[in-house]
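ZP: hey, is the 3-isopropylmalic acid complex queued? I don't see it on the tracker
AM: it wasn't, my bad. submitting now with these inputs:
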Amino acid sequence: MIRIALIPGDGIGPEVIAEGRRVIESAVQAGLADVHLEEFPHGAEHYLGTGVTLDDETFVRLRDEFEAILLGAVGDARVPDNRHARDILLGLRFRLDLFINFRPARLRLAELSPLKGARAGCPDIDVFRENTEGFYTGSGGILRPGTPMEVATSESFATRYGVERIVRASFEHARTRSRPRVTLADKANAVPHVYGLWRRVFQEVAAEYPDVESEMGYVDAIAMQLVREPGRFSVIVTENLLGDILSDLLAELSGGMGLAPSANLNPGRHALYEPVHGSAPDIAGTGRANPVATVLCVALLFRNEGADAAADRIERAVDESLAAGIRTPDAGGAATTEEVGRWIAEQVLDG
Ligand code: NAD
Ligand code: IPM
Ligand code: MN
């Protein structure tokens, strides 16, 4: 039994989670998985109504009673300081110690990429984004706020422990790929302390994996190469903020934000799945949100829980929907969120 907590969240979050739920229910109906689902109301609306972002009782339940969390998105203009999103999304990443943010970018259909020479299957790059350190800890502060002498600091953290575990995870993962190669993306030329530690640890770990090719590069040049020659990359490991930026770039190169899933993992312990995209307030409520990123999160979830047949069937159904042109406008179609979700769910059910 896979117990899944659904947190629809804000904006298009509830719209895409409804379709993720539909696909989960189809997989269950098809006998491909045994699932218990429970939905949680946490998000901007709940925070504005109750003053609660994520209460301890809910946190403990999410930690102890579920194999996986599936989150839509958090972010709402009515909460300008983004406090609820920090408590819910970053809070869960930090408190569950979800140190791997796994963001696979694979072009499923060539015509969806803005790249000139794109062909299906390329880019095919797995980003391992460090998910518990860097600039994201909230460390820092403001001195003399609002005055001409105002000072703001945000510190970036890299611990040997934190860097080593994500780098090691990326090398282990590279071994499972047809091209075992890991690229470290950093900015050691400008920010020597934090990225210097990353480089030293990366080289130490790389020496333990002689069967895996390794290279280190500066993130600005890597961003350029991702556009120019994405086929040379297989696995990219990087620090939290750089990984956030690279994963949006890669999502767009691989068919768009509407198609990109991610998994926040502490293997064997906890997992939170979320599309790479946000709450997309510009299209919320219009039926234009692409549910495929969330549906592919469901596939990742099933795969990590050992329900490979369910994962395979869902991925195949997604490919078939794209090929058949059952797509939302961002992917060049005219279907609504619900039409795409229903179509995929039916394919999953019919096999
Ligand atoms: P966004 O990803 O929400 O949107 C960027 C652009 O992509 C928009 O034009 C949007 O319409 C489009 N888009 C995104 N998802 C789409 C989908 N499924 N289908 C079709 N088009 C899609 O990024 P943003 O506008 O910078 O952020 C909006 C809010 O979301 C902010 O509050 C931000 O903090 C938050 N956010 C949350 C998460 C998360 O919860 N995981 C991730 C990123 C951003
Ligand atoms: C993401 C988002 C989050 C991040 C925001 C909403 C804090 O952009 O999941 O990619 O920066 O990690
Ligand atoms: Mn992001």
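AM: back. The two ends are 21 Å apart (CA to CA).
ZP: great, adding it to the tracker
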